[in-house]
Amino acid sequence: MALQWVILSYVVAAEAVVALLLTFPAPKPLKSRLVALIALVLQPATGILPFVAFQLLDLYWKNEHRLMCTSEICTAEERIRYEKSMFKAQRNVILCVLACLLYWCIYRICKYHRDIKELEEAEKRLKAE
């Protein structure tokens, strides 16, 4: 596995852990601090999206220019190598899609928490009046 895929797999694992942390029940002060911290980290983490887009374009280009091994001229070893590279490419596409999906989920969860906090503050103001 190339270095960029190792990095992307670590990023996906970290995003999954963050998503789990955000969805676990916790006391309100702890949850609000955790959401605030993750919201601060979320903006610099946007850099993963262009990285993923570049990796997807690279996979597409490699797929379009890959030597096809479908005829009877190919040996068994060449056919196995071809299938193995196809499985790796499919795995890498799934990894890219997961990175984008998890980032979006974390963003939406943080946004929902912020919206809920704003609504609670508005409700308190209305009750105070």
Automatic annotation (TrEMBL):
Show the stretches that span the lipid bilayer.
6-27, 34-57, 92-110
Q: List the membrane topology term(s).
A: Multi-pass membrane protein
Q: Which GO terms describe its biological process?
A: endoplasmic reticulum to Golgi vesicle-mediated transport; intracellular protein transport; protein localization to endoplasmic reticulum exit site
> Cellular component per GO?
endoplasmic reticulum membrane
Alphabetic keyword roster: Endoplasmic reticulum, ER-Golgi transport, Membrane, Protein transport, Transmembrane, Transmembrane helix, Transport
Q: Where does the BAP29/BAP31 transmembrane domain start and stop, copy by copy?
A: 1-122
* Claim: Transport is one of the keywords in the record: yes
By its UniProt entry, which InterPro entries does this protein fall under?
Answer: BAP29/BAP31, BAP29/BAP31_N
The signal peptide, as residue positions, is none
Where in this chain does the entry annotate a coiled-coil region? none
Cellular compartments annotated: Endoplasmic reticulum membrane; Membrane
Relate the protein's function as given in its record. Answer: May play a role in anterograde transport of membrane proteins from the endoplasmic reticulum to the Golgi.
What family does the database annotate? Belongs to the BCAP29/BCAP31 family.
Please identify the protein, giving its name as recorded. Endoplasmic reticulum transmembrane protein
